[in-house]
Amino acid sequence: MYFTKMQGNGNDFIVIEDLNDVYLNREKELAIKLCDRHFGIGGDGLLLVRKSNISQVQMVIINADGSYASMCGNGIRCFAKYVYDKGIVKDKTMKIETGDGIKEATLDIEENKVKNITISMGNSSFNPKDIPANSKNEIIKETIEVEGNTYEITSMLMGVPHTVIFGKLDSFHILEGSLIERYELFPKGTNVNFCEIVNKDKIKVKTWERGAGPTLACGTGSCASVIAANKLGLINSKAEVELSGGMLYIEITHAGVLMTGSAEVVFSGEIII
Predict the structure, then answer these.
(1) Cα dihedral: 11, 40, 176, 259 (round 10)
(2) In this structure, is residue 127 part of a structural domain?
(3) Does residue 130 lie within any of the structural domains?
(4) What's the gap between Cα 142 and its chain centre?
(5) 20 to 30 A from 210, CA-CA: which of 111, 112, 164, 269?
(6) Each residue's pLDDT tens digit, 129-138
């Protein structure tokens, strides 16, 4: 099996072309094996390149634990660069089918190389049924207690479920996210974003990703954090997001949320499975 290892702000993925559905129904098995950092290639997730009947190309995302993810912000930037570099899609603006609908990617090309990618991420939803969450009301600044700790949370669907908690980053341990991920309020779990406000135009975020654990960056989590902070009047509609793996640039527009960042190839190779 040929593969390409890629990363977006340190969030790393294994990309495999599966245009003929050779690995259909084997996604979970492959992700667990290939994403293992000791016995496999190592990665936060697996990205499968497949044909689409409704768009130019389809992205299938499987987390490192074998669970399915409908959307991934850093992953889709890596995916867009991959299909462009490989000539699978030759347009600088392309439409990609995901589990969260069709997303548009716009590539910034300099000297025939992809410099940055802007993804139209769509809109968020605070409707508890969409997240999903066991609540009759929107979860905005709601207080919960988990394992003796009290948190004020704001939750939404931003492609996947996200919960945002504001405060100084050094006041949280990232492993606290694992407990909130499985909190009874969220029947399908939630990603957990700890967010610190720097100023009206910048925030810092660290994320515990559902199905992957702590990662150096989370694209949908960055979008969710900016949306939550803006909704609460803490920041403007356009902001920089500082992550352990680098910077992302998020803008809330009337048409939806735009996310801009880079993506890089780490290495390519062949693995026997």
Answers:
(1) 20
(2) no
(3) no
(4) 24
(5) 269
(6) 999 999 999 9
pLDDT digits (tens, 9 = 90+) for 10-26: 999 999 999 999 999 99
Cα–Cα distance between 263 and 136 in angstroms, integer?
Answer: 39
Partners of 18 in the β-ladder: none
Whether residue 112 is predicted with pLDDT greater than 90 in this model: the reply is: no
pLDDT at 273: 85
- Residues recognised as catalytic: 72, 218
Structure tokens that stand for 226 in this block? 């900016």
Rounded Cα distance, 138 and 125, in Å:
9
The type of residue at 31 is A
The one-letter amino acid at 237? S
Query: Strands 45-50, 191-199: parallel, antiparallel or unpaired by DSSP?
Result: unpaired
Whether 48 and 154 map to the same domain: the answer is no
User: Residue 70, SS3?
Assistant: coil
Residue 161 near residue 188 (C-beta atoms within 8 A):
yes
Please tell me the distance from the alpha carbon of residue 61 to that of residue 76, in angstroms, as a whole number.
9
pLDDT recorded at residue 222: 98
- The answer to whether the peptide bond before residue 132 is cis (omega within 30 degrees of 0) is yes
Task: Work out how many domains the chain is built from and give that number.
Answer: 2
Q: Is the alpha carbon torsion for 81, 119, 95, 51 positive or negative?
A: positive
From residue 226, alpha-carbon distances to 92, 157, 231, 257 in Å are 27, 13, 8, 10
240: phi then psi, degrees, rounded to nearest 5: -85, 145
